[in-house]
Amino acid sequence: MSQWTYRLISDGNREMPAVKSCVTCGDSYCRTCITPHYTDPDLERHQLQDLQQQEQQALCTEHRRELEFFCRTDQTAICSRCLLHRHKGHDAIEQVPKSSIVTKGGVPPPDQLQFAKVSPVSVTLRWSPPEGVPGPHRYNIIRRRGQDHCSLRTSNSEVEVTGLHPGQKYHFSVATLSQDGQQSTPIERFIHTELPPPDNLTVAADLSGVTVKWTKPEGVDQVSYLLELFREDQEEPLKIPVPEHLSVNFITASTARIVWQVPTEMQKTAHGFLVSYRSRGTAPKFMSTESCSTDITLLQPGTDYTVRVYTELQHGGKSQPASTDMSTGITLSELLSELGLEDQQGGKLTLSSVLEINSYTLSDTPPQGLHQLPLTFLKKLIMSNLKARNTQCSQNQAMHSCDFREDNVDSDAMNPLDVITALFHCADPFLQQEMVSKMSVCQFAVPLLLPNCDTKKSTLMLWAMRDIVKNYKPHSGEGAFVEGRIVELEIPMVSFVRVGKSSLPKSQTLNRLLSNSSQHSEAFIHHDMPCGDVPRKISNGLVEVSWYLPSGNKNIDIFTQPVNIANLRGDSKSFETQVSFLCQTSAAVFIFSDDLEGDDLSAFTNTEKKAELFLVTSSQREDIVDKLKETCRQHNVKEEHVIVRKKRNESEFVEILRLLVKDFVESNFVKTNMLNLPYTAQQILVDENSSECRNARQNAEGISAMVKNVVEFKEEQLPLHGAIWKEISWLEKERCVMRKANREQELEDYRSSLNTKELELREKQHQRALSEVMAKFITGISQPRKERLYFLTWLKMKLDTLTRQNLSTLRQQYKDCCSENPQNKEQIKKLDEHISNCSLGPEHFFRELGQVYECACSLPQDDLARQRVQNFPGLCAQMLLDGFPVELVDGDASNIPMKWISAVLTELHQLVDTKSRILVLTVLGVQSTGKSTLLNTMFGVQFAVSSGRCTRGAFMLLMEVSEELRPALNSDFIMVIDTEGLKSAELAALDTSYEHDNELATLVIGLSDITMINVAMENNQEMKDVLQIAVHAFLRMKEVGKKPICLFVHQNVSDMSAHDKNMRDRNKLVEQLNEMTQAAAKMEKKEANTKFTDVMKYDPDKDSYYIPGLWHGTPPMAPVNTGYSEAVYELRENLIGLFKSDKEMRHRNAEEFKELTDSLWKSVKFENFIFNFRNSLVADAYLDLYTHYNKWEWAFQSEMNKWLIAKTTVISNFGVTKKNVQISQLQTTLRDMLHEASVKLDGEQQKIQDNLQQYFKQNDNKVHLVEKYRQEFCTSAKNIRQQTEHSVRQSLEQAVEIRKGMEKVNTIKDKQTETIERKVLELIKQCKERGTDLPEDELRGEFDKMWTKSMSELSTIPLQQTDVHQNAFYLVMENLSAKSGRVSEILSQINLKTSGQGKFTVKEDWFSSWDDRGKRILSAIRYADKTHFLQNKQDICNDMITECRNLVKDHTDAMKRDNIDYSDTYIKELCKCIDDKITRDKISDECETYLKIHVIGFAARDFQKAHDEFRSNNDPQEHLKRSRDTFLDSFLARFHEEDQFLKKAKQFSEGFQYYVSKHLGQAIANEIKTGDGEVIYNTQTNFQFAVLKQLLEEHSFEKYKKYTTSYEAFVKDSIKQHTIQRMFTSGRLPQLQKQLLSDIVSKINHAISSPAGAAGRGIKDFIHQFCSALQDQLTIPRDAYNKFLFLLILLSADMDQFTSNLKEFIKDMEESLTQDYERRISHKDIIVRIEQLPSKPHDQLFYYVSGCGHQCPFCETPCNAGCRSHTKHESSMHRPEGLGRYSWVDSNKLVIEICTTLVISDCKFKNFRTKGEWHPYKQYREIYPDWDIAGDASSEASDYWKYVMKEFNKEQAEAFKAEPADIPDEWKRLTKEDALRGLKKTFNME
Q: Which pLDDT tens digit goes with each residue over 569-594?
């Protein structure tokens, strides 16, 4: 516990408190005595110090009071109460705490100064030597009484001072002297010499009285005597004068100052005062003092006290008490509790917590109680709302029920000043600074001295005001505008205070003083404002300050010079500290009072005042004039400085006051610089005195002090982000656009040189050591949070001031140069560049930090320099969380340091524990239209804007979303991106300005969820320019599946009803937007977009906002327009509402935002702005969806394949079990099957759709990333259904055609077979009738006779022979009928029978009439001569021929295997196959004709041969001949009644193995695709990666050659070989066959055991039922079925015996086939088995991994766009065109250019598609609109093919008769590991 200790020094009449101590003199002085130290030249050099607060000693255990005295009689410390009672009359001296003695200059002071002896004329002093310092010592002793003082020096520690006067007070100080003359801080004591008693006292008494006589004691000049009379029973004196004029000087919640005057009778008598105080129900407390005032501390807040003061004599006795009552105020903590701020006390309320997006800040309802009042005020203040101070709690009572009695006090009302004071006590320094800045913008008075009602201390709010920047134009001087921080400006201050009571409303008068006729000021809160009349609780003592700043317009300005207006709240008599401060800092102090007393102005005159005093009164007292004159005389106030209102009206009075202030300010040279106020504030705290603030300031000044010239400073201290970074940025962009490529240099060489230059620049950066400034900056931002924020704020302010000064100088130089030497263009240009580059702020240091990081990232992972920078991104991420803007786009280099930004966002994601979902809001608009101000007002943020110019680049800032609001917004943060203004005047002269604006607009729109288009209504042309840029950006976003929300913000709209009145204007705007959309769509080749709403979400009525102008009046005195704040608040509410309601909005986390930014920026750097991007996160999510979809599609196809096999089996079995079935019924069966197929397809398609729907319902963060692809996959499901339906229809129709073709053959065979069967039955009957057992030879003879006779009787009906060549020729003619006349001519000369022999060779003549363009086309083809062109077409044709040969072989194998005849559908299928291929690979009509003739030629020969074999095998006569032995065996068996069931059952079961063969292909494909650990065939991407990786490992040129020249054939062969190898190594083929065999055996056994085939029915019916049950599983050979039935009829078979034999056979067959499967497992066996399958597994797999089959039109790399329904083809692995056999025409060297490089270059191409005209690669989509070739600016993406080209350069050249390419040096350094890394990166396999 501590309190102020006053050292009292006599001025001759009375004792005054000491205020200063002189270190040189070693003494302390009161205000009067210290004056010579300011006026005497000899004393001015002395060092003065303030007297500091001392620590209190221990308390008295009895009285709980401070031990202020030492009783030498009892040798103990005592309090003042002990001195008056138990120690009364003892020898006691005053104590000074040891803690108050300090060391000065290293010389320790003496210790324990005591008065060993005191007499009337002498004093003996004794002290102890300094502790810890060996002797001897010398001491300086000073004795002082009033103005008289003397000194002596001694080596002793005890000295007797004589020659003193009795009864006088003496002050002694003792200091230690060092050998060099330095003196320690003295220790001090004072004492009264003893007053000798009167001599010769005699008393004579009689009945009426007493006579007392004495003589004057020696040594006493003037003396008075006190006579005390006592009765025997009374201890107290009879009468001692009572203290006069007792009053309470000031009172707080816990402290009160009590003042009184000494009774006149006691002025010459030694005395003191005893003070007692008590509250009701408590015991009184006492304290003693010798002064006429005392401070009572530790009072209870809100309590009534009674105070009594007694006069006490030195040697006993006290007077009657003077008494008064007082009430303490409320404590700060109690008031904060009322306001709901109890948890925020002590600076715990932060800026970030105020800016948090929560439900309360979004609510517009008035506060419902005091606890909501502060935050509501803050919410409005942060938005610069002038109504913030008018905030009050909503009234729950209706007006008609209000009670108008005087005691009806609103408990929820609080004075706004109390609210403001409370908030400043709770706010941290940065929120305080923001509050002051916002109050200044609103032209509110801001706190200068902030009082603390608990401690009675005031705090100078210097830090809080540091960020206020003002500009004005004084009327004097050159009339130039002055701009600067308000604390740095020299402005006179005029203060206004109140003493006692005043009928004049001071604050309201000040507002009128600052107002003119057109602009009313409400700077100061006054009585008539809402709640302004509520009694203040904690804000009394607050000193507010406002500024009047002239605009330079004499008709508007009130004052011609700037002036500070200070206003002290409350009665100044209670606030001496504030009064003293104002008197010392102000040029004038205006005192408002109606009841001045004599000493009321003592506080104004007893200080070191500089201020002139003005008295202002409206008192109507008659003696007021005399009273004022007396006051002026007493306090040296000039009479002309007295203003009496008298009967003047308010306007006249204010005008007089205004004139006085104006005249005084303009004629007075006393100006105040607020930076000097801490030196004046002696007993006032300063908000900048914290250690964090001081340290941060020191660090920031260490940086700013090094800045002499901004431009030079950047070059020397921040070199990495200067010219080097700009050059790197240019290189990055040039790699994308290849604008400066030399036409004589290969593009890849040029690109390689760009990469080399970048590496060199990075190395150059690395060689530059970290500068001293950057080391200090890193140290500053590495400190704890509070000091870090201080550092950044200090640095910003310091650099801003330097920049402003530098800019002012440069502008003046520019102005002088333009006016005086306009012809010096070079100098003007140089100055213009300096002006552009003179800004310097923290963002430049963070840019440098980013470049330090990026430079280090180019080093190896284990490099120490790289390790040292790993914490840098975390520091920047923390800045984002602290609410600081971070630069996203470097405004000077127009580039994003992507590695740096990516690392920062990654660290951000980790810092918030991955809870980093972000919604993004951006603003676009013309420069200087208030975009940053709009955002700052809307959210209370502060974007980093360089001094002297507008925002450059783009800055991002995070605002946290509260926990309660996160579910509604589905977000953790809202990111606000502030952008550089479009149509910048600074960039207008550059050729790339439009490109720059497009880049910026496309980037920020691509990143944003909501984009605000800021439109200034007064500039229509600029508005159109901005809208054009924005429309292009929105259009590009729509093309990549993004359709952001757009809001139009029309600023500077004066009419608030503009929304209702501007419907016509909005309609016109929509028309303009539609026109711009159409124009942009045409430019972007997206003509389908015809309306603005096609590319973005925009409702003209709901999404247009009209905001009035920012200022209400004429700056600099204009406050923010209330309408502006209200409109911005409404806009903010609607924005948050959109964030809540739009369910399509994608909520990305920081990692996803990083990936989006990276992908978008890579795409945006291509100058044509037509791009398609998919970042790695989206790619991962897409791959996951694609993988799932592939599984669903595979299941779809597998199910339909099984169904189709079953139905084709039914068709092949048609008519087998049923006789006399009309073949026409087959068509009905086909219709039924097609209908069933449609239903089946619908069901399978619905399964895919359901799976998709379920997939997108899952709560997975990656699902929303592929939301835009949902429709694509839904469409793909529809397409696969349509394709499958077409394929099923075609297969069924083909099966029906084949079955129909077999009908005539079967009919003939059936008739002849029936004839033979009848003859056999007749023969058996004849032989049986003989009744004897005929020998077998005789039976055979009889059979031969019957057979010969029967065969001779049968008519010969040969099968019709088909001329396949003729049929095929007509089909070819039909297929080519739409072609030109030249085709007909060719066909007329063709002999198909001789065609298709030998090798097919493409001829040049076939292209001579190609679209009538002539042979010139061949020489016009880019990079290729005729040979290369023809070779390309030859390869295309060869691939088609190979595919057709395979197809022909499949059909001929099926004809032999299934015993089916030729069908014309085979030829049609071949023609369709070729037609499908040439839609992708264009060839001429002539080439197509010759190709089809060649293919159909060899196909017709093969089909003819297979047809002839079929005729031979199925000739009825020959068929019967081959069946002779079968009939013979049946005849003999029937005659001898032998059992032949098992033998015939075997014949009947020949189709079982075919079931396995039909289903084995699908089973193998399923095994390969879905087997354990098999991911190669899951997606096309996985497959391509696996193939390319395998090629890299095998390192075979021949395989690479086949891959690049015959991709489809290579892939098919690769899949086939992989399938064979997989079946061989895994040993799964036998298992698959056994599983299928088991399936069919199970089905057969089930059919046998089925109740439908039970006993009781005939065997013929059983066989019929049995075959019908298996008709969709087994192909039942017609001949075998007929023979079997014949045998059963012939033998009269027993049912039980037959079924038993059948089961036995099936079991044996299963065992036999199983053994056969297990035996045939060699590699050769597997090859044969797979090649013989009717459905090839590798063909099925190829369909799923081949994609759409399209290839790049330039390098022929396959499309891998993913989903089959994609509308654009794309490839992630383009390759050098030299690998595609392209070479330069002149040099014949292989071409190394890659498509991805060419499409961003200025190169051109020409071919038959361009009609022989050169066409820019950048506009390749005009020729190939279905292809997207993404420009590749990176060096890793195509490293794979660069490596391949480098490795096989010579082999490639030799193979294609070209010269080896000139391989760039960069390519030569590539390794196999680099190639693999590039491959993994391309396919996102890292």
A: 998 888 888 988 998 888 899 989 88
User: Is the pLDDT confidence value at 776 over 50?
Assistant: yes
pLDDT band at 446 (very low <50, low <70, confident <90, very high): very high
| pLDDT for the residue numbered 408 | 41
- At 1778-1822, the pLDDT tens digits run 887 777 767 888 888 888 777 777 777 776 677 667 888 878 888
The token pair that represents 1654 in the structure block: 């039970």
Give the Cβ contact number of residue 1337 at 10 Å. 8
Q: Are 81 and 288 in contact (CB under 8 A)?
A: yes
Q: Which two tokens stand for residue 1837?
A: 């993406």
Identify the pLDDT of residue 1695: 64
Residues 6 or more apart whose CB falls under 8 angstroms from that of 1407 comprise: 1415, 1417, 1418, 1433, 1484, 1486, 1487
CB 540 within 8 A of CB 329: no
Would you state the structure tokens that stand for residue 1024, as one six-digit string? 């159109």
Angstrom CA distances, 1562 to 308, 756, 1277, 1632, 1731, stand at 111, 53, 21, 10, 14
Query: 1600-1605, long-range: CB within 8 Å, 24+ apart, which pairs?
Result: 1600/1779, 1600/1844, 1600/1848, 1601/1852, 1601/1855, 1604/1756, 1604/1775, 1604/1779, 1604/1780, 1605/1435, 1605/1780, 1605/1781
Pairing of strands 458-460, 685-686: parallel
pLDDT for residue 209: 64
Closest CA to 1807 of 1531, 1422, 1445, 1414: 1422
Compute the average pLDDT of residues 78-91.
Answer: 70
Within its chain, how far is the Cα of 480 from the centroid? 43
Query: Which residue from 247, 43, 27 is spatially nearest to 143, judged by alpha carbons?
Result: 27
**Is residue 777 packed enough to be buried (19+ CB in 10 Å), middle (13-18) or exposed (0-12)?**
buried
Helix (H, G, I), strand (E, B) or coil at 756: helix
Return the closest-CA partner of residue 488 out of 675, 670, 678.
Answer: 675
Q: How confident is the model at residue 1061 (pLDDT cuts 50, 70, 90)?
A: low
DSSP 1181-1243: HHHHHHHHHHHHHHHHHHHHHHHHHHHHHHHHTTTTSSTT--TTHHHHHHHHHHHHHHHHHHH
Strands 27-29, 20-22: parallel, antiparallel or unpaired by DSSP? antiparallel
Residue found by looking up tokens 């298709």 in the block:
1396
Highest mean pLDDT among 443-457, 982-996, 1280-1294: 443-457
User: What distance in Å separates the CA atoms of residue 169 and residue 576, rounded to the nearest whole number?
Assistant: 28
Q: Which pLDDT score, from 0 to 100, does residue 1174 have? A: 45
pLDDT, the chain, mean:
77
> Would you give the distance in Å from CA 1441 to the centre of its chain?
56
Nearest residue to 780 (alpha-carbon basis) of 800, 796, 802: 796
The token pair at 212 is: 């007392």
For β-strands 1104-1106 and 1045-1051, DSSP reports them as parallel
The answer to whether 101 touches 187, Cβ cutoff 8 Å, is yes
CB 242 within 8 A of CB 311: yes
623 token code pair? 């003696």
CB 593 within 8 A of CB 637: no
Rounded Cα–Cα distance for residues 1421 and 826 (Å): 49
Question: Closest Cα partner for 324 from 244, 262, 241, 255?
Answer: 244
Could you report the per-residue pLDDT of 1710-1739, keeping only the tens digit for each?
788 888 888 888 888 888 888 878 788 888
Contact 141, 159 (CB under 8 A): yes
Residue of 251, 267, 268 lying closest to 259 (CA atoms):
251
Q: For residue 1594, with 0-12 CB atoms within 10 Å meaning exposed, 13-18 middle and 19 or more buried, which class applies?
A: exposed
The whole model's pTM is what?
Answer: 0.63
Give strand pairing partners of 115: 125
Please, are residues 8 and 16 in contact by the beta-carbon 8 Å criterion?
yes
Q: Give per-residue burial for 1687-1698: e unless 16+ CB within 10 Å, then b.
A: bbebbebebeeb
Whether cis (ω within 30° of 0) applies to the bond prior to 1753 is: no
